[in-house]
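Handout for the seminar on molecular recognition.
Each group receives one record of this type.
Step one: identify the two inputs.
Step two: read the structure output and locate the region that could contact beta-D-glucopyranose.
Step three: write two sentences on what you found, then compare them with the reference statements printed after the record.
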Amino acid sequence: MKAITVEPHKPGTARLEDIPEPDARGGSVLVEAIAVGVCGTDVEIVEGKYGWAPEGKTRLVLGHESLGRVIDPGPSSSFKRGDLVVGIVRRPDPVPCPNCAVGEWDMCRNGQYTERGIKQIDGFMSERWRSEPEYAVKVDPSLGLLGVLLEPTTVVTKAWEQVLAVGQRAFWVPETVLVTGAGPIGLLAALIGKLQGLEVHVLDRVESGAKPDLVRALGATYHSGSVADVGFQPDVIVECTGVGQVIGDSVKAVAAGGVVCLTGVGSGGRTVGLNTADVASNVVLRNNVVVGSVNANKRHWYRAGRVLARADHAWLARLISRCEPPAAFTHALARQPDDIKVVVQFADA
Ligand code: BGC
């Protein structure tokens, strides 16, 4: 079968190639791939900056934002042939650490977790893949291709859970949220903010196009420019750019008692002239919390499924800005100005 594979930490090694059918040890549920979303992590892996091949192998099947159709549910699952499913990305570490032991693998303490398509387990960019029944999640059939948005929605669902958990440390009734970055993660964070009844603001660099339109269609306010210019102090900032300047500005701009949740994984960039002690005093004197959030556990996968099922499907469909066939995966990985979520499409939904 065809698969998109890469040799991690070796730039320029990604290719579409024939590999053997998925090994039965990968789980009893056999799935036909429909689509796999592409994100910044995939680009980093292809550029040789991130990613790990399975033990004893040199190449990794790429892709962690899956959507597929069950071909064979196997002997012990509640799935039926034809069900739409997505595969959970992370597996607990084998020790296990206390968090992995209770199913909170997204909070793994020892870093020995594995991740499909990222860290030591093959991903979903192959014509067929397998999953253990407990790591496959059924998707509402009405979503069709939109089910490919489930994985990024889980990441944002977890981030919001972190924000609200932190908020419980004191009396706190948040009213406003600023989301920085109007990519898929930012737009999905804005969607969840709206579903919670908050006043939602989204900031990005672009002044026109799909991003501002999507923000307005959600009933939220769009800002272009810098966080310092939004003109109010948000109770919550969900930071989805990973850009140093935006992060620094966010920590300064959040309201007293507010929470800044960092979801973007950036690196390098321009050094921002922030004085750490000054930033810290600002955080101390205003009881702010800066919390990082990565990945998601099963609770978030189920909640995210509900978010997508409840959301306006026409709005969600506008997030998928491009579908490319597997043979054009290089094209899928190359960002174009109007891209929001690009997917590699293996079959019709
Ligand atoms: C994925 C997460 C993963 C993280 C770090 C993100 O792109 O969505 O599931 O934990 O990368 O590897």
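Reference statements: The radius of gyration is 20 Å. DSSP finds ten helices and 19 strands in the chain.
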